[in-house]
Amino acid sequence: MTGLEIGLISVLAIVALIYAGMHVGIALSLVSFVSVVLQKSSFGLATKLLTLAAVDGIANQTFAVIPLFVLMGLIMSDADVGRDSFEVGDFFLRRIRGGLGLATIGANAVFAAVTGVSIASAAVFTKVAVPEMLRYGYNPRFAVGAVAGSSVLGMLIPPSILLIIYGILTEQSIGQMFFAGIGPGLLLTAVYCIGIVGMAFLMPGYVYDLKNRFADLHVPQDSGRELTWTEVAIKMVPLLALIFVVLGGIYGGVMTPTEAGAVGALGALVIAIARRRITLRSFWNTMLETGRITASVCFLIIAATMYSRSLALAGMPMDIAQAVNALDAQFGMVLLIYIIALLLLGTILDSVSILLIMVPIFLPVVEAFGADPVWFGILSVIGVEVGLLTPPLGLACFVVKGCLDDKRITLVDVFLGALPFALMMVFVLILISVWPHLVYINQWF
After folding, report:
1. On the chain, which terminus has fewer CB atoms closer than 10 Å, C or N?
2. Has residue 235 got a pLDDT over 50?
């Protein structure tokens, strides 16, 4: 059996096991272990491979960046940063056509810069932004779609957990991955905003509830209290200062990503205490959740390390390269196949699973064409994030639906609302594929 056949069978086996209810890390480890046993007829060799993957996979101080940035994000989420960001966006943009949609996008972009987790964004803004948009007569489908669509910014704008995982998985600089995520993150934010304004003028019936079909869902009260400039400063200055210190420290070469994560976690704790939005009990729960997420991510990285080594042992990267050469395939065709695979897997698997399965297979191939692994990482993250908005899995859409207070807004409404934003993501994916320099923000100026 060739390495290509082994790789294809392993992917199908992993997908089947995950869909059968097995944890992603266990599925990766099990398939890798069995693959090595069958290839070398040696149970001992497979055991040693698993042991080495467990030791080498996370035996590096770089991994401290994971719990530190997770802790910072969770503390800022508890401190109601999402609500503050939306209120400030509402203050500036409410009177523009589609303004609350723009406020949701902008607030999510700011929130992404201190959380790095899409699901947290979806949960927070479902509670914060959707009721406000319904109050002002927005179409509920658009309201939930804007929240679901903008939540994916959390996995692209640094500090992003997916960028961290990709950096560790491919041995790329996490700081460089963060730097590369800024340009595409801003680009996607801009495309979302342009799309919302365009829909507000060209398709007002999609943005606003013109026929009053959901009138009984609207909150029966007026605009409420306006913010003062002092309140705007109190809400945003500490947050923007934290973003500047953390990301500026990394990009300026003052701090390593690990050091910046520690400073960020401390700064987030200071902000939460100053605003009196954290208690000893909530802080303890945050620490426990940080440990749970960190353990889960580290286990996935160990499993992915073992999987990539089993593929290398089978000779799959070499077989794929030979197959590409035999078919005289161009780089564009290989990239198109990869993107289509990401989009298709996104309908049935979560983002982390797709990244851990597909990157070890395709990265050696695209590197053979001379492609930059950092650019490839940004492309991969955007591709897998589309899956958060597409059925039947669509994790962000399920989170939005689960956090809604009114059950009359169905899951179908959420998916239909998120569809334009998924299409805009595909548009950005095409742009970055055609013009890779869009990833390198330092070349923009």
Report:
1. C
2. yes
